[in-house]
Structure formats: C-alpha cells, structure tokens
Amino acid sequence: MITSYREFWDFYVAEHSKPATRALHYIGTSIGMALLVWFIWRGTWYYFPLCFVSGYAFAWFAHFVIEKNKPATFKYPFWSFISDYKMLFYFLTGRMGREVERVLASR
C-alpha cells in the first residue's frame, strides 16, 4: 500500500517506463487542456467531461497496449491525475528522462 505522494511518484514513473506510453500521456493531457480552454472560451462548459475522456483514452490505451499494466488511476485517482501534469511538466522542462532513469535504477 502506497502511503505518500513521494512513494507514489516513483511507482508512477516506473509504470510509465516506456517512451511511447509517456508520449501518449502527453498527447492526451495536452488535448484535454486544449479542450478545456476551448470549452471555456466558447462558453460550452457542459462539455467539460470530454476533457477527461480525451486524456484518459490516450493514457489507458498506452497502459493496456504498450506498457501492459493497469493504469494507476484505478487505485490512486487523485495522485495519478496530478502526476499526469507533473510528468508533462518534467517532459517540457527536459527532466523526465532523468527521472525515469533514477527510478528504474533504484528498483
């Protein structure tokens, strides 16, 4: 049982060890954010749930087909949601590769 976010983050990174999995997460999260901005700009807030659908569709496909594991969302939904954005931020700042290496080396 994972009891801290720090412990969860290492688990999360290990569950996203393949570059294709991370790439699909980045695409899904980016589309979800773009849809959110679009819906707010258009005043169509009632389409807000589609932001989650697009994000999770890419992520879950990656887990089931590429990574061959169960998405962390099923057991740790809040930490998983936060970690999607943290992972995207680390990617955009050039730190995600080092983070994957760190976590995999410690296992």
Tally of helical segments = 5
Quaternary structure type:
single chain
Strand content: under 5%
- What percent of the residues sit in helical stretches (DSSP H or I)? over 70%
Low-confidence stretches: none
Give the averaged pLDDT, no decimals. Answer: 96
Explain the overall architecture:
With 107 residues, the protein is an all-alpha fold. It has 5 helices and no strands. The chain has one domain. The chain has helices at 5-15, 19-42, 49-67, 77-92, 96-105. α2 crosses α4 (77-92). The two termini are 17 Å apart.
Core attributes:
75% helix, mainly alpha, globular, single chain, 107 residues
Helix and strand layout, with pairings?
Elements (H helix, E strand, L loop, with lengths): L4 H11 L3 H24 L6 H19 L9 H16 L3 H10 L2
Helix pairs in contact: 1-4, 1-5, 2-3, 2-4
Short structural summary:
This protein has 107 residues and is mainly alpha-helical.
